Amino acid sequence: MITIGGLTENDRAAWENLFAGYNTFYGRTLAPELVDRAWREFASGERMHALGARVDGELVGIVHFLTHVSTTSADVCYLQDLFTDPGTRGRGVGRALIEAVAGWARARGCARVYWHTQASNTTARRLYDKVALDKGFLQYQIPLGT
């Protein structure tokens, strides 16, 4: 059985391991101060939020998200990071985390939840195509060197 809930101080090591796996998947290594900053933000619950998925009491998935204003609707929720332990994939953990974020956002009056993924992330996209609409947008970035 999958349970979804907030993260506690006791989850820090398991969360760091999952977050490192997420960043490794995308070919990056975060500086320790950025990891610490994210954890502090999640603990305060003001700007960024995190939920964890547990199976048999073990943290096996994480999701990070935030809300922001929109010019065309009520506030929207951006699902920034989603990662599940490779050993638990295919058991509904990712879907449960997405549904939990959608419920959180719905309860706060958000108009929608959205996220990005790489086109080559075919494993995740199989799930995403089942739970959300692909609106066909492309992402462009201007790196600012910070």
UniProtKB/TrEMBL annotation:
GO MF term list: acyltransferase activity
Domain of life of the organism encoding this protein: Bacteria
Enzyme Commission number(s) of this protein: 2.3.-.-
Alphabetized Pfam families for the sequence: Acetyltransf_1 (PF00583)
Keywords for the protein's UniProt record, in alphabetical order: Acyltransferase, Transferase
Organism of derivation: Amycolatopsis plumensis
The protein's name: GNAT family N-acetyltransferase
Coiled-coil features, chain-numbered ranges: none
Organism ancestry: Bacteria, Bacillati, Actinomycetota, Actinomycetes, Pseudonocardiales
Top EC class for this record: transferase
Keyword Transferase carried by entry: yes
